[in-house]
Amino acid sequence: QLYRETKDEFIIVGCGGIFSAEDAYRKIRLGAHLLQLVTGMIFQGPQVISQIHTGLERLLARDGYTSLAEARGRDAQMLQR
After folding, report:
1. What are phi and psi of 72, to 5 degrees?
2. From the CB of residue 68, how many other CB atoms can be counted at a distance below 10 Å?
3. Considering the entire predicted model, what is its pTM?
């Protein structure tokens, strides 16, 4: 909702429950500029970073985006007010 109201006026950090590229991509598509991966790293180790990176590249390509900036906030408009 914050992203929908303010767009890029604020930097939004997506945190909590990011264990996969799909989790990260959802937060980005809802408007996150940055991601916090502490819990994922605790439970899955530092390799989770490269797994998420590779997965994000795949998801971006699947959806026809060439950058995270293109995907950022795409789902924010679909949320109910």
Report:
1. -60, 125
2. 17
3. 0.88
